[in-house]
Amino acid sequence: MNPFALFAPNKQRHNDSRKGQPSEKNSGGKNSFRNYLSNDDDLHILYREGNVDPYLYSAWINIAVNILIRNLARADFVLERDGVEITGGPLYSLFHRPNEHLSRYDLWKETAAWWLLEGEAFWWFGPDYSGGLPKQLYILNPRNLYAEITGGGGVYDEFMNVRRRWFYQSGAERIPIFSDELIHFRDWNPWNPLRGVNPLAALSLELEQDYFANKANSTLLKNNAIPQGLLKTDQTLRPEEADALERRWESKYGQVKAGRKIAVLGKGTSFEALSFNPDVVKLFELKRWNLYTILAKFGIPPRVANISDKSTALSGKDTKEQHSAFWQYTLIPLLRQFEQILESSFFMRFNLRESGRFDLWDIPELAENEDSQSKRDIAEITAGIKTINDVLKERGKEPKPWGDVWHKPKNLISTCDCKPDGNAGE
What we know:
The structure is a single chain. By secondary structure, the chain is of the alpha+beta class. It folds into 3 domains: 3-201, no CATH class; 210-279, no CATH class; 364-414, no CATH class. 38% of the residues lie in helices and 13% in strands.
């Protein structure tokens, strides 16, 4: 099968709208890596007009992405100039209210959502942008963007391909957008240097299995999907007698309200309950495996997703450690990557003295780690292992004029029996 076909945009629709434009498939576009893959099974049952969205049909993809974007948007993005926070001016207004329909919270929430679903996100400076510092920021759907590319080298030769323009497909309208009107948040793509790679591509088989497992379970749980038991008799029954026996059984014992009644069977009649087929039980194990695979891909510890093993409770030290690890090893690296992309694609592009960073001081999951670090720093300063300026340097803060002097605690007593002249006693 073609695992990437699940996440490819509607190729026919885009090809129809690109007449007269170079095709991405042949010019290093977003889905050009699909040329190396077979196309023997596109799972047509999953397609809705040629476009499948795992965020729509996969419950755990939806849950995982929402956990990530909700938490990521909790970190405030602050602007600084020479280490001093900026609380006013055009740049502050741009990030505080990107446009009349977008809040600063939604700016990062939606940016992260596209990054997690498509491996890239686009900020557009708006239809009225004419140069200089933008006054508005809009988030574009990466699925509707494609690049006009020319080049004399191979399809994947990033040095020969020169990006000229982007085109945004909005309904029947194709809007040209120049590269200097965009900020492109892009994850590394080994198949196409100009686009991000969908992070769910490697999970296509797991998502397919999960989808069909859900379908099988739904069919199993529907009324009359399988008989819950068999009424067996050694007598020969006419069709109308069999129907009457079935109706009588259902009326007395088949309803939930009658589940605890005692069954009285006639002579030669017995009831045999049916149990789950072992293959059905395997579906639940498969879904559990796929669940942990999806969480691992997104870097979400099970406790953060409110999942716990039967042997452990969803509370205590382990839960706190997993929430802290979620920030330390998943969210913070992603936030730092966003900072670096903005540094090179925005602040340095417009030669700004300002810089931006995510402030994590009010994140409770990190407070305990900071408190523990502060206690260790104080202990090392007291013991003379570090000076105050050593600690400030590690934290990226300005040193103090008196911070290089170690102050000996008054309660320390020398164990050396020394005379006033400094010589040890005999």
